[in-house]
Amino acid sequence: MDEPTATSTVHVDGHGDAAPSKVERAKAASRQLRGTVAETLRDGRSHFEHDDVQVLKFHGIYQQDDRDSRVERRHAGQEKARSFMVRARIPGGTLSAEQYLAFDTIAGRFAHNGSLRLTSRQSIQLHGVGIGDLRETIRELDEALVSTLAACGDVMRNVMAAPGPIDDAGHRAVRAIARGLAAEMAPRSGAYHEIWLDGERVDLAPTADDTSDTSNAVAEEPFYGETYLPRKLKVAVTLPADAGVDLHSQDVALLAILDGDELLGVDVLAGGGLGMTHRKADTFARLASPLGFVRAPHAVEVVATIAAIFRDHGNRSDRRHARLKYLLEDWGLERFRAELQRRVDFELLPWVDPGPLHHDDHLGPRDQGAGLQYYGVWVPSGRIGDEDLPLRSALRHAVAELRPGRVILTPSQNLLLCDLEPAQVDRLESLLRAAGVPLPSELSPARRYSLACPALPTCGLALADAERAIGSVLGELEHELEALGLDDEPLTVRMTGCPNGCARPYTADIGLVGRGPGRYDVYLGGRLAGDRLGALYEQEVAPGAVVEALRPLLHAWSRDRLPEEGLGAFFRRLHGGELPTTLLTGAKEPLRAVVESRLEAGTRKPDHDAWPLPVVATDGSLPAVQGER
Ligand code: SRM
Ligand code: SF4
C-alpha cells in the first residue's frame, strides 16, 4: 500500500491556532516511544515521571496506585502505593491454550492476587505489577508470542472481531481482515524491543529537545510519524450473523457482507465513541455512522485511510475533543466521505443493507461444526481470580487438561474454550461445577449480560466502584425481577466508575455511571445489540437505591410490555418521540420525573419508531437488530 504515509503528519501543531496539548509534546519528544523509560528502569526508581507515563501507555503499561490506601498514605506522609497495569494486544481475542496458560503463570507470579482481567475489547490486563517486574512480565509474554505494544496509547487499539470460533466463510473473512489490520496498523518503533526485550539502544535523532527534523521519525514510523494519532482509534470487524462486538461504539467498524461463501466487501461505520465528562456538555457519546461499502480487497486500506485522515486532522490541542467522533461531527458525514474518497483509488460505494444483526454471547455448550464444540465460560466482570470463586484454578486445570485448540476472549469479558470434542465439553462442565463456578444456564439474564469496568481501586479516573459494586445491584435487581415474573427477560446492566464508558453503559438497557463515591447516574434506553444510546434517567443514585428508582418502570414493563420488548425499548416507547436529542451530552436533565408522570397517566400506545435513532446517516438508517430487545 503506497498511501497513507506519515509524510503529511501535522507534527507538533495543535488545532487551528491552539497550542498542542502536553501529551502531543511528550510524544514528539519521546523519540518514537523511548522517552527515558529505560533510564528509569536502570536507575531502580519507584515510578515514572509525567512524559514517560504517557510514553509507557503505548507499551501497554499504565502507572496506577492503590486508590483505597491513597488518603491514608498521604496523611501518613507516605508515597502512593504505585504499581502497574499491563494490557496485552490480542487481535480478535484469540489465544492458543499455551498462551492462556502463560498468562495464568505470569499473573500468578507478578499480578495482584494472581488475577487476570478480561477486558471489554477482547484482551487481558494484569493489575498490580511492580516496577521491578515489568521487564520480566513483558519478556515472558513475548516468549509466549504475546505483545503489549499498542494495547494502549494514541494508536489503533486491539482490533475486535466476531468471537464465534465457527469455521464458515464469514468468520474466516472477519478473522483474516482483523489479522491484516493488526499487522498493518502496528507501530514499527524498535523502542519496545530495546526497552523490554533485548536492551539494545538504537540512537535516533532528533533528540528530546529538537523536534524539528522528522526524517528519522517518518523512516521509523512511516504511518504514525513522530506524534502518532491524536488519540486512540478503536476498530472492530464483524458480520451480521455474529455482531456482538458493539460495533456502534467503535471509531471504525467493518461489517462483512457475503454472498453465500463469497466475501463481497464490508460496510464501514465510523465515529462511534462513548467517553464523556460529567457537566461538560460539549463532550458526548456517539454511535458510529454508516459511511458506505467497500469491496473486499480494500477492507484494510479503508481503515488505514480513515486513520490517516484522523492523524492529519484530529484535534491535537484538546484531548477531550481528540477522538474521531468529534472530527466527524465537526466536518459532517459528507465532507468526511469526500476526503476519504479523495485519498483512495477505489470507490466508496453506497451502504449495503446487511439485514438483521444477531447478537450472541456464545456462553454455554455450542456446536462449532465438523463434529466439534466450544464452550463459553461466564467470567464475572472479566475477573479471573481465586478470591471469591476458584475460577482461575478451575480454568487453568481445564485448559491444561483439555488443551482447547483456541481460547477466545469475547467483547463481554467472557472466554470460549474452542475446538473441543463433545466428551471434553462434558468434562469441562464437571470441572466448573466442582469448583462452584456458575454455569451460564444457571444465571439470570441480567447477570449473564452484565458488564462492569475495573474502576476502584486501580483505575486512576474512577469516581466510584464498578466491578466491586455491580454484584449487589444485580442481586437486588434479580430479586425484584423475579417477583415481577421478569426473571427470564433479557436485560443488559452495565456499570462504570466514571463517565468514560469502558463497560459501554450508555448502550445498555440500564447503565450505571459513577458520579462520586457511592453515587451513580442511571441511563436507560439501550439494548443488547449496542445500537441505541440511552438517556439520563436519574442522577446520583446510591447502589442500594437503584432498584427503588426503577421500580415504577419495572412494574409498568412487566404489565404493559409488547412481546419481545426489552426494558430499553419499553422505556423508549414510553417516552415516545419527545426525547430531545441525536447525541447524548453531559448536560441533560434526568427523565425520571417525566417518565413517572407518564406512568401515572398510563402507558402510551406502541409507537416503536417514534424514538429517533441517535445518529441517522444521510444515506441510510442503522441496520435493524433481531427483536426489539
Ligand atoms: Fe477504557 C481509560 C479500562 C474499554 C473509554 N480505560 C481507561 C483506563 C486505562 C484508565 C486511565 O486512562 O487511566 C482504564 C484502566 C482501568 C484499570 O484499572 O484497569 C480503562 N477500558 C478499560 C477496560 C479494561 C474496561 C473493562 O472493563 O474491560 C477496557 C479495556 C479494553 C481493551 O482491552 O483495550 C476498556 N474504554 C473501553 C471502552 C469500551 C470499548 O472500547 O469498546 C470505552 C468506550 C468506548 C470509547 O473509547 O469511547 C473506553 N477508557 C475510555 C476512556 C474515554 C475515552 C474518550 O475519548 O472519551 C478513557 C479515558 C481516556 O482515554 O482518557 C479510558
Ligand atoms: Fe476507569 Fe472510568 Fe474506565 Fe471505569 S469507566 S475503567 S472508572 S476510566
Description of the structure:
Helices cover 31% and strands 17% of the residues. The chain is α+β, with helices and mostly antiparallel strands. The chain is globular, with a radius of gyration of 24 Å. The chain starts with 21 loop residues before the first helix and ends in a 28-residue tail after the last helix. Siroheme binds at residues 62, 85, 87, 119-121, 123, 125, 157-158, 234, 246, 249, 273-275, 323, 382, 413, 453-454, 458-461, 500-504.
Write the layout of secondary structure elements.
Elements: H1 22-28, H2 37-42, H3 50-58, E1 61-65, H4 70-75, E2 82-87, E3 94-95, H5 97-110, E4 116-118, E5 124-129, H6 134-143, E6 160-161, H7 169-185, H8 191-198, H9 215-220, E7 235-238, E8 252-259, E9 262-270, E10 284-285, E11 289-295, H10 299-313, H11 324-331, H12 333-343, E12 364-369, E13 372-377, E14 383-384, H13 391-402, E15 406-409, E16 415-420, H14 422-434, H15 445-448, E17 451-452, H16 470-483, E18 493-496, E19 510-516, E20 519-524, E21 535-541, H17 546-560, H18 567-575, E22 584-585, H19 592-601
Parallel strand pairs: 6-7, 7-8, 17-18, 18-19
Antiparallel strand pairs: 1-2, 2-5, 3-15, 4-5, 4-14, 8-9, 9-11, 10-22, 12-13, 13-16, 15-16, 19-20, 20-21
Helix pairs in contact: 1-3, 5-13, 7-10, 13-14, 16-17, 17-19
This protein binds siroheme (SRM) and iron/sulfur cluster.
How would you sum up this structure in a few lines?
With 629 residues, the chain is of the alpha+beta class. Helices cover 31% and strands 17% of the residues. It is built from 19 helices and 22 strands.
